[in-house]
Design goal:
The protein has 14 helices and 11 strands. It is of the alpha+beta class. The two termini are 18 Å apart. It is 41% helix and 13% strand.
Length: 413
């Protein structure tokens, strides 16, 4: 069920209007070239790529829905928390916020454009070097000191909090009346298994997926989409790898575990549990949205999972729960769930694309033909474009307090 767009956003903006907004966000910006960079009418953001007269590449994004706006605010809080000192500990780049301006009741945000190419999970894990780099990149995130999370007012959960959150999710799914009894018992037994929840919570990306990862020269060069930054279960950043069919998917996991020097004997099992629970999230999304087609789809997949649990005798989740799905089963299941519905630990809802995948780019795409209608830069903007960019400066909330509130609200959903 598609999320309705709030009145404050309005209709989609042209790339010229977006470029004009960028000049409002960055006084003195001299735009040489620009082009639209959104996935048609289905994207969660209006976005455009910009090149200034000095050759600097920027991206401007304007949220198209309330949830996208919340996501963007949370992302800003996270990027501000990731100070130079924290960034220096990471073997890759993260987005750099450079400016913002009000835009029809929301905010247009301008970032430095990160170099790199994006690939799906299968392609990322089809190359040994790339897979190993992914494992090391995730390990580096998890090795960040946790103190800055509290300082920034970002969410913090210990192992017991994570366990309680899973219990709450299971309880909510059970109250729908659609959760098979076999899965309810299985998941409850997993939450009752103390050994599964003996881990040290750490800094996590919180929304990690293949879409968030940029690759340059067969290594991770950048990671996007930091709205879920928090202290939480490290398994949440690994569960997307279970859907990867590349022959080196296990290399990514093994490299991660080696870099983290073990100490979490059940991290893979918890990651697989979170993968199973995606079906519960999908069910809750349908129930919360009163979408019978989603409910029926979730029920069908839950029934399929019951059959898988009974048929399989490998990959035990814990001594109490018996067999878990095989990795192949997880791959198939996650392929069946619409991408936007995968919660990564959040409450069941269709989440916006928070990784700028809607804004993905290839620097080689910046050809003259792409910018043929905007080569004159700012001089090519219509009066209406300039007015739209500069005429709403009093209509949007700004400030760290607003961002922090939005981040906490997003994390609690």
């Amino acid at each position: 069920m598609e999320e309705s767009r709030p009145n404050l956003v309005g209709m989609a903006r042209s790339h010229l209007t977006l470029a004009a907004l960028a000049t409002s966000a960055l006084p003195g910006l001299d735009v040489a070239r620009t082009r639209k960079h959104s996935h048609g009418s289905t994207g969660m953001f209006d976005s455009a790529l910009l090149v200034d007269r000095d050759g600097r590449e920027l991206i401007i994004r304007v949220p198209m829905t309330q949830s996208a706006e919340t996501e963007q605010s949370a992302d800003l809080v996270a990027l501000r928390a990731l100070t130079i000192g924290n960034r220096s500990r990471l073997p890759f780049d993260i987005p750099q916020f450079v400016g913002q301006t009000p835009a029809s009741g929301t905010r247009a945000i301008v970032y430095e454009l990160l170099p790199g190419d994006s690939f799906d999970a299968d392609a990322l894990t089809a190359h040994a070097g790339v897979a190993g780099s992914i494992g090391r990149a995730i390990a580096a995130i998890h090795a960040l000191p946790t103190a800055f999370i509290q300082t920034a007012g970002l969410p913090q959960q210990n192992a017991q909090d994570c366990r309680t959150g899973v219990i709450d999710l299971i309880d909510r799914a059970a109250t729908t009346g659609f959760l098979p009894a076999a899965l309810l018992r299985r998941w409850e037994q997993a939450t009752d298994d103390d050994a599964l929840w003996q881990f040290a919570a750490c800094v996590v990306h919180g929304s990690l997926s293949a879409d968030a990862i940029l690759i340059t020269d067969d290594a991770v060069s950048g990671i996007l989409g930091w709205a879920g930054l928090s202290v939480n279960d490290p398994a949440r950043d690994l569960h997307w790898l279970l859907a990867a069919r590349g022959q080196y998917a296990e290399t990514a996991m093994d490299t991660y575990i080696s870099a983290r020097q073990g100490g979490d004997a059940h991290i893979v099992q918890r990651a697989m549990l979170y993968a199973e629970l995606e079906l519960a999230r999908w069910l809750l999304h349908g129930v919360d949205g009163h979408d019978q087609s989603v409910i029926d789809d979730a029920i069908s997949m839950l029934d399929g999972l019951v059959g898988t649990v009974h048929d399989r005798s490998s990959h035990p989740l814990s001594p109490e729960t018996g067999p878990i799905m095989s990795v192949t089963d997880v791959e198939t299941m996650l392929d069946d769930i619409p991408q936007g519905a995968r919660g990564n630990g959040q409450r069941a809802a269709v989440r916006p694309d928070n990784t700028m995948h809607t804004d993905s780019y290839d620097a080689s795409d910046f050809t003259e033909s792409d910018f043929a209608d905007s080569e004159s830069g700012v001089e090519g903007f219509s009066d209406a474009d300039i007015a739209a960019a500069r005429g709403t400066e009093s209509s949007s909330e700004t400030g760290a307090d607003t961002d922090a509130h939005a981040a906490r609200r997003s994390a609690s959903e």
